Amino acid sequence: MGFEKENKKKAGSSSSNSPRSLPREDTPLLSGKIHVHPLSSQPKTFANVFISVVGAGVLGLPYTFMRTGWLTSLLMVFFVAALTYHGMMLLIQTRRRFEESPLCGYSKISSFGDLGFAVCGSIGRFAVDSMIVLSQAGFCVGYLIFIGNTLANLFNSSLTFPVSAPKIWGFSAKSLYIWSCFPFQLGLNSIPSLTLLAPLSIFADIVDLGAMGVVMVQDVMIFAKQMPVVEAFGTFSTFFYGLGVAVYSFEGIGMALPLESEMKEKPKFGKILGLTMLFIATMYAAFGIMGYFAFGDNTKDIITSNMGKGLLSTIVQLGLCVNLFFTFPLMMNPVYEVFERRFWDGLYCLWMRWILVVAVSLVALFVPNFTDFLSLVGSSICCALGFVLPALFHYLTFKDEMTWRQASADLGIVVLGVFLGVSGTWYSLMEIFSVKLHLIQTLRLAERGPEPHIATNFTAKMIRNIVLYQIKIIWCPCPLLLQKKAQN
To answer: For this UniProt entry, which segments traverse the membrane (predicted)?
Structure first.
């Protein structure tokens, strides 16, 4: 399956006779031989869409409901699901126009990047490729954060939390667990083909669904015994924070075109897609509300951390860690395809893959909170991929035959996506870097000495403890420096 631009002038060129032609800007990203296989039925398409959309982001939804308010989050989940569905359908409509029109000169469009090239040329492909690289790498950063925090919580949780961070041999437990994954990820990411890794995708989805089921059952049992105080609404800033996490959780826009191509009854794809998105939104809403209602203000950024230390809890959390560990190379594969295409003539490049794994691991070390990072990726990248680019491509393709209402709808989604993306990115960065601002203030207070109103203020003491805990996680190589500062 490929993106074929019909060009009669090059029909007799020597490149067609070469054993392997180098990729160009108009070469399909999903290139290769066409394999004839049965197309998907409606139930199989439903399952494929479900698998493509549901991921690890769902584990951060209860914490988001706690930060944003359960009613605000509930409406937000269904709003994002509807907007994501609309964006997918815009991509499909745009692709059909290019494939069905003989004047366009494109017989087959297989991927989001191919569609970007068809609409905007090299700029369109570069925009899509850049967003896909950042989003896929962002997903993998989130996986490493989850693995590090979960293992540290399971095996090295400190009784003095949050005053001191869990440590192993003087290093933060999270950092050590992330680096322990590094050599194994180098080996897994060296595999050039996805064929050997394909069964891991099925295993990952089974583990995700099993973990969600176990967590929801436990939520119901806890909620039946006690009902904590919950809030229906949050603040203005937390709205954009929650929006980023919701967009991240629904990120599957890049699979819309391949899934529609694989369906047997293509005219019914819109109906199946809509039903699947409605089902996923309902499941997300139930999972988020039940988690928040069970633990209230004690809901953690990774809901499985609230499960305690029992055998079942340990098995579920370890299963999720193994799941994300093996999902890492699958999610990084599109990044490798783009980089090898642009910088290595489409050839396999081992050292480039290893450098990208190092870069992703380093970023994971500097982000302490799993859900904070989900919000950042969802706001900054997924908003552009899911809302802005589909509406923009649709408008540029159909602008000559649109009514003013249709044009306003597309342009309105573009403006809305840009506004939500910029606002959400700003508030997410504020959440992440606020830890460093608190550290500076704490160190200045320590240099001046305790003031009476500070010494008697319980809230100020707690902020200082939390700041020191978070900084020890982030700056794990510098524990002695922190101790000296605290002594001074």
So the answer is: 46-65, 71-92, 132-156, 176-197, 209-227, 239-260, 272-295, 315-336, 348-367, 373-396, 408-429
Q: Which helix (H) or strand (E) holds 4?
A: strand 4-5
Percent helix / strand / coil, the chain, rounded to 5: 75, 0, 25
CA distance 372 to 241: 8
Domain ranges in the chain are: 38-425
Question: Does 223 have pLDDT greater than 90?
Answer: no
- For the entire predicted model, the pTM comes to 0.73
CB 152 within 8 A of CB 146: no
Distance between CA 187 and CA 92 in Å, rounded? Answer: 37
Q: What average pLDDT does the chain have?
A: 76
Q: Which of 73-77, 209-213, 246-250, 476-480 has the lowest mean pLDDT?
A: 476-480
Percent of all residues in the chain with a pLDDT value above 70, rounded to a whole number: 73
- Report whether pLDDT(343) > 80: yes
Q: Which residue has the higher pLDDT, 141 or 37?
A: 141
Cα–Cα dist 275/91, whole Å: 18
Residue with tokens 């999902």: 327
Q: pLDDT, tens digit, for every residue of 437-474?
A: 554 565 456 555 544 444 444 444 444 444 444 444 33
- Tallying the residues shown for the chain, one arrives at 488
- Find tokens 């004690």 and name the residue: 298
Burial of 27 (0-12, 13-18, 19+ CB in 10 A): middle
**Burial, 163: exposed, middle or buried (Cβ in 10 Å; 0-12, 13-18, 19+)?**
middle
Q: Examine residue 162 and say whether the peptide bond preceding it is cis (omega within 30 degrees of 0).
A: yes
User: In CATH, which superfamily holds the domain spanning 38-425?
Assistant: Amino acid/polyamine transporter I (1.20.1740.10)
Helical packing angle, 389-398 and 70-100, nearest 10°: 40
Packing angle of the helix pair 269-295, 61-68 (nearest 10 deg): 70
Instruction: Report which secondary-structure segment, H or E, holds 123.
Output: helix 122-155
For the cut 80, the answer to whether the pLDDT of residue 43 exceeds it is yes
* Alpha carbon distance 450, 455 (integer Å): 6
Q: Is 263 helix (H, G, I), strand (E, B) or coil?
A: strand
Region label for 47, one of left (φ > 0), alpha (ψ between -120 and 50) or beta (otherwise): alpha
Q: If residue 108 lies in a helix (H) or strand (E), which one and from where to where? A: strand 106-108
**DSSP H or E run through 78:** helix 70-100
Dihedral angle computed from the Cα positions of residues 378, 380, 386 and 391, in that order, rounded to the nearest 10 degrees: 150
In angstroms, the first-to-last Cα distance of the chain is: 66
